[in-house]
Amino acid sequence: MAVREDKRELIIENAVKVFAERGYYKATTGMVAKAAGVTQPYVFHFFQNKEELFKAVIDRAFSRIYDAFSEVNAPADQLIETMGRAFNQIIQTHRDEVLMVMQAHAISEAGIREHVRQLFLTIFESLTLKFEGAGISNAKETAAHFIGTGLLITVAEVLNLPQLICGKDEAE
Amino acid sequence: MAVREDKRELIIENAVKVFAERGYYKATTGMVAKAAGVTQPYVFHFFQNKEELFKAVIDRAFSRIYDAFSEVNAPADQLIETMGRAFNQIIQTHRDEVLMVMQAHAISEAGIREHVRQLFLTIFESLTLKFEGAGISNAKETAAHFIGTGLLITVAEVLNLPQLICGKDEAE
DNA sequence: TTTTATTTATTGATTGATAAATAAATAAAC
DNA sequence: GTTTATTTATTTATCAATCAATAAATAAAA
Known about the structure:
Helix content of chain A: over 70%
Low-confidence stretches of chain A: none
Order of helices and strands of chain A: HHHHHHHH
Oligomer: homodimer
C-alpha cells in the first residue's frame, strides 16, 4: 500500500519538473516516466491519461502557493507587503511550480482549463477573505490586483524581463 | 506579385483565428490551410515552418495593440485611464488577437519565446516613453503595472472569471 | 498460489514537412 | 496573333517521427 502511494508520489514529483520545464504539450509521458525511473506505460497505471496526471501535478504546485499564503499573518497595514514577500519567496524556492500554475491558463484543453479556473477562483476568494479580515476596504480589488502582479512577475521571469519587476534590475 | 502577397495575407489572417482559438500546439497547419482555403503543404510555400507562420501571425496581432496605444492622446491626468479604455476596446473588437499576444509567453519554443520577449519589451518601452512624455513621475512602474493589469484581464477573459476585473460583474 | 507491481511489445492516430506532379499564367519566338 | 517555352502557383501523394494509450506477459511479493 505504502509502495503504491510512494510510486504515485514519485511520478507526481518528477512530473512537476518535466511539465514546468517543457510546458504541458512538449512534456511527454515518456519523459515523466524516465524522470521518475519507471516505464512510460506504467504512468497510466496511476493516472487515467496525461490530463489527469497534469491535474494532479498542478494541484500539488497550487497547494504550495495556497499554503504559503495561508500561513501569512501580519498587521493590516503590512499585510499586502508581507504577502508579496511570501510570493517572492516561493518563487525562489519553488520557481517551476509557481510559474507552471501562473501559466496554466494558456493550456487549451477544456478539462484542464476548467480545473485551472477553479484554482484561480479559490486563490481569489481566499485572498479576498484574508484582506477583508484585515479590514482592508476594497478587498476584492486588492486581491485581483495582487494576482495581476503575480502574473506580471511570472511573465517577467519566463521572458527574462527583470525590467518589468519594480526594484529588480537587469543585473542579477 | 499582388496575388502572391494576397495569398500570404489570406493565410496569416486565417491563421490568427485558428491559433487564437486553439492555441499554438493544438492548431495544426492543416486547419490553418483549410481556413484559408488552400492545401496544407501550400502553407509551407510561404512560411518555412509552423514557428515562422506563428511569428508572422503574432506580429500582426501585436501591431494592432501597439498601434492602438500609439494613437492615444490624452492630458496627463487622464492618460492611464484613456489607455485602459483603449485596451478594453481592442479586446472587444479583436479579442482573439489580444488574448493570443498576452498568452504567448507560455509557448515553450525557444524561438517563439525570444520573439515574444521582444514584443513585450517593445510595448514596455513604448508605454514608458509615453508616460514619461506625459510627465508621470514613475513611468516605468506605471508601464509595468499597466501590463500586469492587461495580463489579469486576459486571465479573467480566458478562464471566464469576470470577478477578477474590477467593475465587471458575473452578469454580462 | 494468488495478487500486486512492473515491463515489453505494439498500435493507431496525428502531424509537420518534403517531393513530385500538374495546372495556370506569362513571356518569347515565329 | 498563334504557338512554344518558361516560370509561377498549387495540388496530390507520401513520409518519417512522435506520442498517448492498450494489451499481454513477467516478475515479485504476500
